[in-house]
Amino acid sequence: MPLSSKEKIASCKTTLEANTRKRRASDNNHLHTKRARDDLGTGEHRQSEAKNMGEATPKRANFSALNPSNNGFNSRSSPLVNNKPGTSKKLVIKNFKVKPVLPANYQQQTWDRLKEAVQAIHKSRPIKYSLEELYQAVENMCSHKMSASLYDQLKEVCEQHVASQTGQFTSEMTDSLTYLKQLNTCWQDHCRQMIMIRSIFLFLDRTYVLQNSLVSSLWDMGLDLFRSHIISNRTVQNRTVEGLLMLIESERTGDVVDHSLLKSLLRMLSDLQIYEEAFEKRFLEATQMLYGAEGQRLVHEREVPEYLTHVDKRLEEESQRILHYLDHTTRKPLIACVEKQLLEDHIGTILQKGLDRLLEANRVDDLTLLYRLLQRTKNGLHDLCQYFSAFIKKTGTTIVIDSEKDKTMVQELLDFKEKLDNILQTCFAKNEKFSVSLKDSFENFINKRLNKPAELVAKYVDNKLRAGNKEATEEELERLLDKIMVLFRFIHGKDVFEAFYKKDLAKRLLVGKSASVDAEKSMLSKLKQECGGAFTSKLEGMFKDMELSKDIMFAFKQHMQHQCHATVMDLSVNILTMGYWPTYKPLEIHLPSEMVNLQEQFKRFYLDKHSGRKLQWQPSLGHCLVKGQFREEGSSVKELQVSLYQTLVLLLFNEGDNYSLEEIAQATNIEDSELRRTLQSLACGKARVIVKLPKGREIEDGDKFLFANEFKHKLFRIKINQVQMKETVEEQVTTQERVFQDRQYQIDAAIVRIMKMRKSLSHNLLVSELYNQLRFPVKPSDLKKRIESLIDRDYMERDKDNPNQYHYVA
Q1: CATH superfamily of this structure's domain 237-241+248-336
Q2: CA distance 33 to 266
Q3: How far is Cα 604 from Cα 597, in angstroms, rounded to an integer?
Q4: What whole-number distance in Å separates Cα of residue 156 and Cα of residue 158?
């Protein structure tokens, strides 16, 4: 049946109203579902959202497409009015003026459902309702000002559950491990339950809790309940801590324990904020008692290397415990406790008992470990450095003082220094304090024996620079000279070294026994760099004399070629400047006429070119090449490299077959001690070209000497002039006396120089100035003697009123 116009409008109104309601309900349901899903997301995201919310409770609006105040249809506001083709549609949406009213028992019913879900979680049973439904219920209650009561009710339910768990931990249990596992299970269940409860009550946690600073978050509330009802119980706390300490002690004695259980329970104590108060203090006390007793026992029972290995192992074990289950805040006090009980309290015993042995045996690995461990302590390295210095002084003094070790002293010192340098670099990490201590210690002991080390170092250098020394290559010799210079720096009496070095250098240059000119000049350069040009000026002058002598001899040979008479001998002369070279005692010996004639010819040649100069012949370092005829099968002619004194003795046998000691002395006029040494080299050495009767190693009065006709040797040229390179006792004493005399001159010059500048000075100040200027060690008594000598010679005078005051006499 066709409808009227009014009926059609009413039908349209009813249809529109119904559609609007359906769309609104669908939108609201979609909105609620989306919110519930979003709020079940990560806690961090939800907390950041909650912080950005400006209102305590989210406002919701219910919308209607019709004006509820009109019972009929308002044609002017209806979107269907004037719905002509081509015109736009207009929809006006307004709020309800009356909000919906909740049922009277809504809060209680909703809480009952939430409580039932919480209890199901506590009892690990399935939840009847979906999480989205429960989350929406919490949101609705919070939106209608029910947050405070909801929070209190939830806390009450959780507290009842936690309180009910306390009883199982206060009953008697004999097995500590089972007890700890039960407590850990309870803790893990509690954490899991609180996480799930919080996911349901997340909206409450993000709104009400965040906006009330006096209210704890749901997670913190759960921790507070567990702490107050379970772990704060004195019985529970004591049994828990004792069980943990028992497990750790078992592991320290070598047993295998459950690290995951320890880690979980210690993390529990840390989360409950009682780790330091309840556990750490007792743990450190137990650690101190354990390692204190262990250190006292093992440091005496075990050798130092074994003890150090044990300490290193213990430190590594404690570091692993921190890594596996202990809280990281325990690292510093725990390691400090172990270091103190096992290292700091026994540093003196360790060093006194084992350091010397380790150093003597060159135990590099053990010394490295010792340094690394003592580096952990407060004063460990300081004590180690002192003991290291004491060992160097003790060992070095033993080497230097013992006169029986003079022949090997320098080599032992070089080996000792090389070993210590290696230890310093490898074991002690090139520590600057240890390096300074090493230098001071060497300087201390090497000068306890005055003058002798300097003399022996000079002789050692001479031995290495002689010709025929095939022990080392040029590179090795250069490195050896560098090591010798290190010892040289420690020596105070450098003038003693200079005197002996100059004497030996003169022999090497004049006899032609220098191994290498480059090595000689390299050593000279090192000395100059170390002591300055004044120290090496005379040594450099010796090399210049040798170069000039070569030029003079070249001119002399050319001169001799133009002479009418020929000679059967070749002459080579070295012109030496007296101030550069050592002082030699002038000797008058009987030379063959041929030699005398050659000497006179050279003297005339030289003085003709250098008028005003004086030549003084020094035969002690002369050497010759002599041909000898023996009754040997085959080649019977040998060439002998001998000294001038040996030459004079051998030439006598051209005129006779045998001579006594007295006859040889009269014929040659060689000084007695030198003659005996010469005869010993010819008759008692390896190459015996004359025969001594009676046989023996020493030359005695009345001995007879015969020419060895049956002499045999595999070489054609034989060296017998090594006797010149050997130092006699007289030469040694003469050199020492010359050094002492030179020191007196230096002291006198220094006193006069100081007094001339200061004019007046007290005795103590004068002595102090002298110690600062003199390069060699000197005793106060020696200085006093030199001052008295200068006063007697009127260089200075005493004050009339004060005898300790001196005045310079101009």
Answers
A1: Cullin Repeats (1.20.1310.10)
A2: 41
A3: 11
A4: 5
How far the first Cα of the chain sits from its last, in Å, is 159
Q: What is the dihedral of CA 38, 42, 44, 45, to 10 degrees?
A: -30
Percentage of the chain exceeding pLDDT 70 = 85
d(CA 589, CA 120): 129
In order, the DSSP letters of 276-329 are IIIIIHHHHHHHHHHHHHHHHHHHHHS-HHHHHHHHHHHHHHHHHHHHHTS-GG
Torsion angle of C-alpha atoms 339, 343, 347, 353, degrees rounded to 10? -170
- The number of beta carbons lying within 10 Å of the beta carbon of residue 768 is 11
DSSP strands (E only) in 92-169: 94-95
Same CATH topology for 622-727 and 731-808: the answer is: no
Give the CA dihedral 372, 376, 381, 384, nearest 10 degrees. Answer: -60
Burial 626-637 (b: 16+ CB within 10 A, else e): eebebeeeeeee
Percentage with pLDDT > 90 across the chain: 42
What would the pLDDT profile of 430-467 be if each residue is shown by its tens digit?
Answer: 999 999 999 999 999 998 888 889 989 999 998 888 86
| Three-state DSSP class for residue 220 | helix
Q: Please give the Cα distance from 642 to 756 (Å, whole number).
A: 54
Contact 519, 479 (CB under 8 A): no
Residue type at 164?
A: S
Enter the pTM of the model: 0.73
Judged by DSSP in three states, 692 sits in strand
Domain 622-727 adopts which CATH fold?
Ribosomal Protein S5; domain 2 (3.30.230)
Q: Which residues contact 409 (CB under 8 A, 6 or more apart)?
A: 399, 400, 453, 456
| C-alpha R_g of the chain | 54
Paired sense of beta strands 796-798 and 63-64, if any: unpaired
- DSSP letter at 448 equals S
Query: How far is residue 38 from each of residues 132, 192, 239, 305, 342, measured CA to CA in Å?
Result: 10, 21, 44, 65, 58
Percent of residues in the chain assigned helix, strand, coil, to nearest 5 = 65, 5, 30
> From CA 595, how far away is CA 616, in angstroms rounded?
15
**In this structure, are residues 247 and 257 in contact, taking their beta carbons and an 8 Å threshold?**
yes
Torsion, Cα of 524, 529, 531, 537 (10° steps): 50
- Dihedral, CA atoms, 499, 500, 503, 508, nearest 10 degrees? -140
Residues 141-166: tens digit of each pLDDT: 999 889 999 999 999 999 999 999 98
| Residue 710 three-state SS | coil
- Rounded to an integer, the average pLDDT of 283-293 is 95
Architecture of domain 106-232: Up-down Bundle (1.20)
**Which is nearest to 620 in space by CA: 597, 643, 598, 642?**
643
Which residues have C-beta within 8 Å of that of residue 153, sequence separation ≥ 6? 111, 115
Choose among 341, 256, 345: nearest CA to 290.
Answer: 341
C-alpha 222/C-alpha 227 separation (Å) is 9
Single-letter residue type at 110: T
Residue 98 confidence class, pLDDT cut points 50, 70, 90: low
CA dihedral defined by 408, 409, 414, 418, rounded to 10 degrees?
Answer: 100
Beta strands 760-762 and 658-660 are unpaired
Which CATH topology does 731-808 take? Arc Repressor Mutant, subunit A (1.10.10)
For the chain, give every domain's residue range.
1-35+63-93, 106-232, 237-241+248-336, 622-727, 731-808
Query: Cβ contacts of residue 697 below 8 Å, gap of 6+?
Result: 680, 684
